[in-house]
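Handout, tutorial session.
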Amino acid sequence: MHSERSRVQKLRLYFDQLAAGVSSKPLAAVNRAVYVGDGTPLLRGAGVAVALCANCAWQGSPAIEVTSGPSGARLLRWELSSGQPALLEGAGVESQLAIEETLDLAVDARYLMRCDRVNFPSGGVALTHTHQGPGIRCLQSGRIRVMTQGRDFWVEAGGAWFETGTDPVYAQTWPDSPSHFIRVMILPVALRGKSSIQYVRPEDRLRPKDQTYQIFADEPIDL
């Protein structure tokens, strides 16, 4: 049941693949973040002309189209909206919806959309923690074990999962190689430029941490 004091939104992650030198049909204006796994795509729209490279991201809300470079492009695309799913379309374009989750966002609150990268050394762990907002992660390298909400599962490279933010999570990465994932979280706007993580056990707060972060985008959004 949804409260009258909340806005129901869908947070979705899409996998988009473009052949070399093609342009997509325009995507509608919604809050989105686009991360480039491979390639050098160009994003264009009203007031937008952004050239991206691998391991870069853009966040915004205008309607955009995507043009790939000479080697094509592989994208992770997150969208937050109350509308229907929207695959990226066009000749030479493949797109699929990887995961979607329903969010109840408070009517009287303001939010930001954060896109960042989280890196772990071989066998690194994320001590039991929560975040101050929900989000969808997508593992790009390595392997990670996630324990939350009574579940215990491994994620392989290319796999995606959702974390509520309020439910404690413990994560452990595969010991044979480094791991990293890209995530988008919806956070209170007061956290712009600040960490969202909170450790459950007081003794863990001062312990050395294995994970490091790279923030790509961290901007307020209008719902």
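The second record follows below. Compare its token runs with those of the first.
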Amino acid sequence: MSKRAGNQGVIRLTMPADLRYRDVAVRAVAEACRLVSRNRYAHGSHPRVHHSATTTQTLDLSDRFAAEVVSAVSEIFNNIAIHGYGGEGTGDVTLEMRIRGDRLVIVISDQGSAFDPSQVPLPELDALPEGGMGIHIARACMDELDYTPGPPNVWRMTKYTAGSMRRPRRVSSPT
């Protein structure tokens, strides 16, 4: 993690676009969520983390903030690996997380196939589909979600903590 102005950090991780690496991405995102929670409670409140005997902290994933961020990133990672690279694991995914006080900004980029999110059909929820829900889950979980086709393809996601002075919910993509 590199230090930025105001003691805010950036975490970057590049990994193969292979579903076997999704858990690596998810664990990194969960840790970034913990850091956002720790920033939020830095002035006297008690964070929702547990301390182990080794002083390693693990995130309570029942925390809505973390659960939603992890779900969104997991779905986007799946889509990149499966659709962007055709399930071949032949490219990379770069995950960049910026801790910004009351929010976490995540940028996910890849060199896989681009697509038009406006062409993704709305899922038929009455049919309980097995697939085709990833982008819709990410939209529902994040406060801001933007996609820019590439190369590189770039997803920019922002999640605000519950008590932040958040901006209005905005989800956009090129149409």
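Points raised in discussion: The chain is about 25% helix and 30% strand.
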